[in-house]
Design goal:
The complex is a heterodimer. Chain A folds into two domains: 295 residues, 3-Layer(aba) Sandwich (Rossmann fold); 97 residues, Rna Polymerase Sigma Factor, Chain: A. By secondary structure, chain A is α/β, with parallel strands linked by helices. Chain A is built from 13 helices and 14 strands. In chain A, helix 12 links the parallel strand 13 and strand 14. Chain B contains nine helices and seven strands, in the order ααβαβαβαβαβααβαβ. A seven-stranded mixed β-sheet of chain B has the order 3-2-1-4-5-7-6, with helices on both faces. The chains are: A alpha/beta, B alpha/beta. At the A-B interface, strand 13, helix 12, strand 14 and helix 13 of A face helix 4 and strand 3 of B.
Chain lengths: 408, 229
């Protein structure tokens, strides 16, 4: 099953009569340039929406070596627009992995000590079944025919992957933002499989403000005439303008006023005077446009709709009679919750609410707020304090689980 | 005269026992049973928590300062950033065997509420604090006419985090007011040595530079015995 080829990509290309750049897109969904595990019709994956996906596949990457006792596995959960390429060159963009500062040899999540796994989420576009995958019923991409997904679905899919890999209990689950939501869901759904949990810059539910921002992003995608009611892959178009605008808006929420001011101020881009036009006069405009353009090269618009929706629906307490502490009742997992002072998308009070619930559940919890002006994105950036905390927390978890001490 | 006073007042803080452990921490640790669950409120960089964990205690900490928290978490301790005045309310009743307030009481905004929460969250509370009734402080204030500034209490009155100083006698009154029973008590002199156990309260209040008390709820049961006076 593992590594067996799916439907021939040339055949898919011919069927869809898509433009060359989209054949690449569909190819990454069907034949990802990473490890992939495929489940046939006899092993359907059931979603919260009540629909079964079959066939179903999970694309993932691993780093390091699983020890004979199988006690050193660390699962990384990626954020909204992340993927499984945590610490290797990205196959589409050619850029470094999204968390190479955190994950790698000698890094805080040390791949010389830990066996690191990261899977593309269900609903994603980098090889795990999602809206750009081929619907077996029609032989065409699912598009909006894809069922809605939840954070619970993402976590359940990862559990299926771990079963496949023969890993029972994880040493740790770590992730930021939507990845942090998955970490919390992991701790709630599978407490016996999570020795330590590292939810970073996240919340137990998406706030009204965050849902509002997501809605603006989705509307931008859907307002693009090239979106074609989600059938753009079939019709050979791409809602790149809509998706780029969505990304530009979202990107602002990942930064902070102070960070934008520090990076760009009111400086002009390659000119000394305003042009009195709507060209990108300001550096900050040029930067945002660049962010938007590069994003559409690597991300599927429908995936963006589905995954933002999954975050909107996330409300962990709602599954436990509205009492968040019940989600962690009797947990033996050790937690390390981290927030950033300038993060206004997932502000510190959201993390504090997690901590209060964990306290009420008598869980072993650490909580640190890191002083930075880099906003929500700080969890992806060079933050020495973040690295020291993650390293220290993981080392103490590893020691408690009986792993040999780190070589220094 | 004042210079010498200042130096002397620093000694209790500097007093360290075998292995460089702070004497007041040792006194606190000796009041905590092995294998118990402990919450250290105002745990600083986690020095006391580490000592307790070495003694087989399941320790958690709350600390206000971000630097202290981050240092503690990086050491692998279970420390959360939080405020004793506001965050204790989130903890359920009887969540811990002991709740410790080490050299922090005087820095809280509402010492009485903090102590009440401690007795609610923990089956026992351990409180250590600098005694403002110590004779050197009395003389410093009487002769110098100024609030004392020492290495032990290094901030001037207008920027000190220590806003609620009390004497041993004052603390005894607070315990009475919140229905706490003093099960054990130790007063340390300026050199970190414990004072005679059978000394009267006025003697402790005059010569104890720091005090450590083990408290229980008075309605918690008849097992505790008030220190004989």
């Amino acid at each position: 099953m593992l590594g067996s080829p799916g439907p021939g990509s040339q055949m898919v290309e011919a069927q869809l009569n898509v433009k060359p750049d989209f054949s690449a897109r569909v190819q990454e969904s069907e034949q990802p340039r990473s490890q992939v595990v495929r489940f046939g019709p006899e092993q359907p994956f059931r979603l919260d929406a009540g629909v079964e996906l079959a066939p179903f596949q999970i694309a993932y990457q691993t780093y390091g070596t699983l020890n004979p006792e199988r006690t050193n596995a660390v699962l990384i959960c990626h954020a909204l627009t992340g993927d499984q390429h945590v610490a290797n060159t990205h196959p589409v963009t050619g850029k470094p992995g999204w968390w190479e500062t955190m994950v790698g040899p000698g890094r805080p999540i040390d791949t010389e000590r830990y066996f690191v796994i990261c899977a593309n989420v269900v609903g994603g576009c980098m090889g795990t079944t999602g809206p750009s995958s081929i619907d077996p019923a029609s032989g065409l991409p699912y598009g909006l025919g894809f069922p809605g997904v939840t954070v619970r679905d993402m976590v359940r899919a990862q559990a299926v992957l771990l079963d496949h890999l023969g890993i029972g209990m994880l040493l740790a689950v770590a992730g930021g933002s939507m990845g942090g939501m998955q970490v919390l869901q992991w701790a709630a759904s599978y407490p016996e499989r999570v020795f330590a949990a590292l939810p970073i810059a996240t919340a137990t539910r998406h706030s009204a403000q965050n849902i509002a921002f997501h809605e603006v992003g989705r509307q931008a995608v859907m307002a693009d005439p090239d979106w074609r009611q989600g059938r753009y892959l079939l019709e050979g178009t791409s809602p790149r303008r809509g998706l780029a605008v969505a990304r530009m808006g979202a990107h602002i929420t990942y930064l902070s006023d102070a960070a934008l001011h520090r990076k760009f101020g009111r400086r002009f881009q390659d000119r000394d005077n305003p042009t009195f036009s709507f060209d990108a006069d300001f550096q900050v405009e040029s930067y945002l446009r660049h962010q938007g353009i590069t994003f559409v090269e690597r991300f599927d618009a429908n995936s963006y709709l589905y995954l933002t929706r999954a975050m909107d629906y996330f409300d962990l307490a709602a599954d436990y009679d509205g009492v968040l502490a019940n989600a962690f009742k009797g947990t033996k997992t050790r937690f390390c919750v981290i927030s950033f002072t300038s993060d206004w998308l997932f502000p510190t009070p959201e993390s504090r609410a997690i901590v209060h619930a964990l306290n009420a559940a008598a869980a072993r919890v650490s909580f640190a707020e890191i002083d930075t002006d880099k906003g929500h994105d700080a969890f992806l950036l060079d933050e020495p304090e973040l690295f020291a905390i993650v390293r220290g927390f993981l080392e103490s978890a590893a020691a408690a689980r009986g792993l040999a001490a780190a070589r220094r | 005269m004042l210079a010498r006073l200042k130096r002397d007042l620093t000694m209790a803080e500097a007093a360290r026992g075998p292995g460089g452990t702070r004497v007041d921490h040792l006194v606190v640790a000796q009041m905590v049973e092995r294998g118990s669950r402990v919450l250290d409120v105002g745990c600083g960089d986690g020095e006391l928590l580490r000592l307790l964990e070495q003694r087989g205690v399941d320790g958690r900490g709350i600390e206000l300062s971000r630097e202290g928290v981050n240092e503690g978490v990086a050491k692998g301790l279970a420390v959360v950033q939080g405020d004793a005045d506001t965050d204790l309310a989130a903890y359920p009743d009887d969540a811990f065997d002991y709740v410790i307030l080490s050299q922090t009481l005087q820095a809280t905004r509402r010492p009485r509420e903090v102590l009440e929460h401690m007795l609610r969250i923990g089956r026992r509370a351990v409180v250590s604090f600098p005694n403002f009734g110590h004779w050197r402080i009395r003389i410093g204030l009487l002769l110098g006419g100024r609030m004392p500034v020492t290495a032990n209490l290094p901030d001037t009155w207008y920027d000190t985090p220590n806003i609620h100083f009390c004497t041993i006698k004052d603390f005894r009154d607070l315990c009475e007011a919140v229905g706490a029973r003093m099960e054990k008590g130790v007063a340390l002199n300026a050199w970190g040595a414990p004072l005679r156990l059978n000394a009267p309260w006025w003697f402790w209040n005059l010569f104890g530079e720091q005090a450590v008390f083990l408290l229980t709820r008075k309605n918690a049961g008849p097992n505790g015995r008030t220190r004989a006076r």
